[in-house]
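Propose amino acids for all 327 sites.
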């Protein structure tokens, strides 16, 4: 078994999923890291090779070229396909992030191989790759077995805790310049418009404050943003809030939104549907504020407060301000 991990870099920053993927690859190969390689793509991405080594990558390929520096599906597919052909990988792992979800299935088709998506763990039966993946919003777990000699896997973010293997490890670093077939690049990214927020993305946030349908309108979300600013939290939303136009889709937490795993998740006016829980149930501490004492979210919450959110938010803000000032 020879494993290649796609370590995602966005805006020059290494995504935390890289450590999660390498930790899982190490567990899969029972700690034998010589067959675990990683690939980095993006301007100046070589700076992250050392971090990948600490997580167990024995070799890191660095692809730093104008065509691959901004994510585009086709150049990524061609680059990784060439690495597979050159080095004979049998398992290629990437994150089930928007980027991974976009190009991994196409990569699998290009290589006429199996694709196991959004998995939460990988194991081996001989050389056969077996993966576990949640189904029906996490109500049951399916075990799927690859029938192919080359397997592609996307791992759900925030499920596997990253573990550094050796903080002083060094990897062999190789610059890789793919030979790109420009004619095959049918779509090009012309411009990337970044969101205004400087806060960590929901999938990487340690503190999340979310609002549901009870927020009532988009303007009311401002009180959650103000509260979040006190402690540097990221603001999320339920689908009902997003569908009602109170918040943009990139703030949606849940089955059809983002999967999050913060240390603290505070839910204001969210009922706790199975689809919302699917995206945040693994949060370390869940606090729910809801006027309905029978709201399902209270069954999942570590701390529940039966209250009107519009009264609770200012109280939270005052308390958190004091905590921050005295810490
Ligand atoms: C295929 C599919 C996928 C889905 N994916 C997602 C997903 O990714 N994410 C997601 O969130 N949902 C998803 N849903 C929708 C989901 O089923 C729920 O409809 C949605 O989560 C409800 O959002 P909500 O809790 O904000 O709204 P509601 O269920 O309407 O709950 C609002 C809550 O606010 C409380 N409340 C009202 N006023 C106040 C107040 N003043 N103060 C405090 N509390 C108050 C109410 O008691 C209630 O519990 C999906 C559904 C389907 C079918």
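Proposal:
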């Amino acid at each position: 078994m020879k494993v290649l991990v796609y370590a995602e870099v966005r805006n020059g920053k290494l995504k935390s999923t890289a450590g999660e993927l390498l930790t899982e690859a190490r567990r899969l190969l029972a700690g034998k890291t010589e067959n675990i390689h990683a690939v980095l793509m993006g301007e100046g991405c070589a700076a992250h090779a050392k971090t990948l080594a600490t997580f167990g990558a024995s070799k890191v390929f660095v692809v730093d070229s104008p065509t691959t520096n901004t994510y585009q599906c086709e150049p990524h597919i061609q680059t990784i396909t060439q690495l597979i052909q050159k080095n004979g990988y049998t398992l290629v792992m990437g994150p089930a992030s928007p980027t991974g979800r976009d190009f991994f299935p196409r990569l699998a088709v290009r290589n006429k191989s199996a694709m196991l998506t959004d998995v939460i763990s990988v194991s081996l039966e001989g050389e056969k790759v077996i993966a576990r993946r949640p189904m029906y919003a996490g109500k049951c777990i399916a075990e799927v077995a690859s029938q192919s000699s080359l397997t592609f896997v996307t791992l759900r973010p925030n499920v596997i805790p990253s573990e550094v293997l050796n903080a002083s490890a060094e990897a062999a670093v190789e610059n890789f310049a793919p030979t790109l077939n420009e004619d095959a690049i049918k779509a090009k990214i012309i411009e990337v418009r970044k969101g205004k927020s400087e806060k960590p993305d929901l999938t990487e946030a340690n503190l999340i404050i979310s609002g549901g349908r009870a927020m009532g309108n988009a303007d009311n979300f401002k009180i959650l943003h103000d509260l979040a600013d006190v402690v540097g939290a990221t603001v999320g939303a339920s689908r009902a809030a997003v569908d009602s136009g109170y918040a943009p889709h990139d703030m949606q937490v849940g089955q059809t939104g983002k999967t999050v795993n913060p240390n603290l998740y505070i839910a204001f006016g969210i009922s706790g549907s199975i689809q919302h829980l699917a995206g945040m149930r693994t949060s370390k501490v869940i606090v729910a504020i809801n006027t309905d004492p029978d709201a399902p979210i209270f069954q999942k919450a570590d701390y529940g407060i039966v209250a009107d959110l519009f009264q609770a938010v200012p109280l939270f803000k005052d308390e958190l301000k004091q905590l921050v000032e005295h810490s």
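The radius of gyration is 21 Å. The chain has ten helices and 17 strands.
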